[in-house]
Structure formats: C-alpha cells, structure tokens
Specification:
Elements: E1 5-12, E2 18-19, H1 23-27, H2 38-45, E3 49-50, H3 64-73, E4 87-92, H4 102-110, E5 116-121, H5 125-139, E6 145-152, H6 164-172, H7 181-187, E7 193-200, E8 209-218, E9 227-228, E10 231-233, E11 239-241, H8 247-252, E12 259-260, H9 262-283, E13 293-296, H10 304-313, H11 327-330, H12 337-346, E14 356-363, E15 368-376
Parallel strand pairs: 4-5, 4-6, 13-14
Antiparallel strand pairs: 1-7, 1-8, 2-3, 6-7, 8-15, 9-12, 10-11, 14-15
Helix pairs in contact: 3-4, 9-10
Keywords: Acyltransferase, Transferase
Pfam families: ACP_syn_III_C
Protein name: Beta-ketoacyl-ACP synthase III
C-alpha cells in the first residue's frame, strides 16, 4: 500500500462575487414578485457573497465542465503536465448532461491523452466520493497520480424562468401563484464554482497533505429523501421519478427543480452528522486534541452552533479557533465547497508541518456523511 498526498489545490469561481441584494438580478423574479423567504434564509445562512456562472440577463458564461476544467488547468505546471495525468475523478450534483458522464465531458475539454475516468454522482458527498476514488487508486498502487474535483453549476436551474410554467398552471387552477418553500429555499442557498486536488504518491512542494484515512456513512436505509430533484415526493416518502410524469407535468410542476424537505433536514442532519463523525473518530482513535484544523462543510451558519454543541455532548470538543470555513464569502457550492475551503487553507501560509486537518461533509440528499483526516507534510 502506498501513501497518498494532496500536493496541489486549485479553485475556479466564475465572474464577479454577487451580493445578497444582487441575487434576484441574476436569478430573476418568480411571477415578477420578490421572494418573501429570501431575507429570512439569508439571515440564517449568513452568506454575504457567492458566484454565478451566468450574466445579469441569465445567459450562461460557463458550463459545469468548463468550470471544472478551469480549476484543473491551474494544477498543471513545469513540474506536472496534463500529459502525466493518470486518473481523472470528478464529482458533481449538477452535470451539464445526463450522459456522457461529467468526467468524460471534462476530459473532452482537457484534450490531453487517455486517462482512467470516474464520475461520482450525488450531492455534497459526490466531491468526497471522487476524492476517495483517487485516494484508493493511488493507495493500491493502481496509479501514481490522480486529479479529483468537486463542481457545481446550479444558477441556471434556479432561474425564475424555470418556474414560469408552474406559475401559469397555478393561475389557471385559480390557486396562489407562489412557489413552494421547498423549492424557493434552495434558490438562496446554492451557487457555482469548482475545486480540484492533485493527488500523488510522493509529497511535492512547500506544502503537501497526507491523506491518512477517509470514511463514509449512509443512513438511506432508515431515512427518506430530504433533498432531491427530477422527481416528486409522495405522501409515503417515496420519490416518484421524472420519467413517470408526463412532459406537461415536467413543466407545470417544476419536476426538475431542486427541492429541500426543510423539516426533515432540521430533524436529522445534525444528529446523524454527530453520530457518524464520532464513529469515524473512534474507529481511528482520534480525539479532539489531535485536530488542529476542522473544516466542516455546512450549508448554513444556522447549523454551526448545533453541530458544535452536539459534538461537545459526545466528548468531541473542538475549540472554536480550530474551525475553518469560508461559507460567508464563497457561498454553498455543494460538492465543491470542501475543495474550495481546503484550497484556501492550503495556500494561506498558515499550515505547519505535523498539523492535522479533519474534513467533514454532510449530504442531506438521503443523509450521507464523508470524512477525511490529513497530516501536513
């Protein structure tokens, strides 16, 4: 078995940062009416700026694959070229097309040479799953290097025009033309961007991060879907898939919009997060004093105090000064968030050899959690 190191990290955030007051300029007004939920949601998540791969007219400036390629391109230099790449592993919840895979579309833009591809589909954990594929490939000796990515392009999915048919349908039924909170909620939470790591079997440069271990958990066997798209939740908790709806329903009910069962999120995301993290730390005999930097991906600052309290109650008291987050300034970029947070820390000049970093990524899709423990080399 071989050691695995993150030797370089890069990010790509499209265009200029978008303030809270500018959001509806980019995403548009549903039914020409400002969202009543926007200010409440932003007050809770505390995000003050984010990035969109669209202009103010709603036109795309980048595809997801282009965002990913632009992040990856920054990993290539005189010491490591695109021609040396062996594995490309890409995670996203918002691929540009259903098929071919996201990794294949990114590889098509790189135009380097034949490489092994892996595409991880899911929500926030898809980026960590992509990382684990690269980690295990190098760990086993199957490859000497890998590039792993997390990326999202959700702005076009959140555009007001995507809900026009549903509004028209509601009016024809003489119902209030208001989009359900489960759909409106995520319009003020999610944004675009990409992050990329270069993994190698030897450390390189002034700062490398050795991946000591990675762990993942799923509670789908006992909990129903919480965040979903391309279907509609039924009364019994099952998801009716998009291909069981008529094309008219796809438009009239915004079937492909991203939805969040907020009550389910509030009930389970923290307890299951605390449970899984404690199990991961216990398995590897890691105590809070062996964590110098804690990078939790949180969708909203609303959850930070609850997570801290829940961990403390289980004996995992990570001091507040060890928490490292950049949600406020870059927004919630789903699978890319943990990449972009670690990239900022890795290139900050703060890290010292021997320090240890814990990455924590929850996914509310059907409650999955992923962790990685790193040592600065």
């Amino acid at each position: 078995m071989f050691d695995v190191y993150i030797t370089k990290a890069a990010k790509y955030l499209p265009n200029q940062p978008v303030s809270n007051e500018e959001m509806e300029t980019y995403l548009g007004l549903i039914n020409d009416t400002a969202s009543k939920a926007r200010r409440i949601i932003l007050r809770n998540n505390k995000i003050v700026s984010r990035y969109y791969a669209v202009d103010k007219e709603g036109n795309s400036t980048h595809t997801n694959a282009e965002l990913t390629r632009n992040a990856i391109a920054q990993l290539f230099d005189a010491d490591f070229s695109a021609q040396e790449l062996e594995v490309l592993s890409c995670g996203t919840s918002s691929p540009d097309v259903l098929v071919p895979s996201h990794a294949a579309m990114v590889h098509g833009l790189l135009k380097n040479k034949s490489v092994e591809l892996n595409s991880s589909m899911g929500i926030c954990c898809s980026g960590m799953n992509a990382l684990k594929y690269g980690f295990l490939s190098i760990k086993s000796g199957n490859s000497k290097n890998a590039i792993c990515t997390g990326s999202e392009k959700v702005s076009t999915r959140l555009a007001a025009q995507k809900y026009n048919h549903e509004i028209i349908n509601l009016k024809s039924l003489e119902e209030q033309p208001i989009i359900a909170f489960k759909k409106d909620f995520l319009r003020w939470m999610l944004s675009d961007g990409a992050g990329a790591f270069l993994l190698e079997n030897q450390p390189r440069g002034p700062v490398s991060l050795k991946i000591e271990w990675m762990e993942a958990f799923s509670y789908a066997y006992e909990l129903e879907a919480c965040m979903y798209a391309g279907g509609e939740k039924l009364a019994n908790g099952d998801i009716k898939p998009w291909n069981d709806f008529s094309p008219e329903q796809w438009l009239n009910e915004s079937i492909f919009s991203v939805k969040q069962d907020v009550k389910l999120l509030d009930e389970f995301i923290l307890p299951k997060g605390v449970q899984s993290m404690c199990e991961a730390l216990e398995k590897h005999q890691i105590t809070a004093d062996k964590i110098d930097y804690f990078l939790p991906h949180v969708s909203s600052y609303y959850f930070v105090n609850g997570l801290q309290k829940g961990l403390q109650e289980k004996g995992v008291d990570i001091a507040e000064e060890k928490w490292f987050m950049n949600l406020l300034t870059v927004g919630n970029i789903g699978s890319a968030s943990i990449y972009i947070a670690l990239e900022e820390l890795m290139n900050s000049g703060k890290l010292k050899k021997g320090e240890r970093i814990l990455l924590s990524v929850p996914e509310s899709g059907r409650f999955s959690f992923a962790y990685a423990y790193l040592t600065v080399c």
